[in-house]
Amino acid sequence: MNTNTSLLITLLTLLCVVNNATARTDDSEKPIHITADSAELNEKTGVSIYRGDVKMVQGTIILTGDIITVYTANDEVDKMISVGELATYQETTDDGDIVYAESEEMIHNSPEKKIELFRRGKITQVGNVIRSDYILYLTEEGLIDTGTKKDRIEITIQPKTKPKNNVIK
Fold this sequence. Notes:
The protein is mainly beta. 9% of the residues lie in helices and 54% in strands. The protein contains one helix and ten strands, in the order αββββββββββ. Strands 1, 2, 3, 4, 5, 6, 7, 8, 9 and 10 form a ten-stranded antiparallel sheet that branches.
């Protein structure tokens, strides 16, 4: 099987896995709450660094890590970089499904509505699991692109629940 065919099959599989996993449309309108052991804020550069058991909550979005660096521009959050033994991300979609992600480093780019997972990346939704050392998750479209030329991906797709046949005797 050539590389293009393999890539096409992978992308089609991923589209089936995420199945309308789009982020909540109103989360970006909510305030951001951050808790940490310490914080270093620089108004001139627009960079804030939070250290120690950091937790960031915005609506249904929860981002955690050992260190979270927040970059702002024009009083808006531009991106957040979370690092840790395992940084985590969780959101509830408009459909009510929970998307959970984890990796050693995570870059959440707010304007582009994307999250990149680096090293030991994993995304779980409705029992479906995708693992790779690199995962790109486009939150607005619910699209996941994964893998590099150096690593392999691992995907677990749960079967659809079959309705039980009710037999009347």
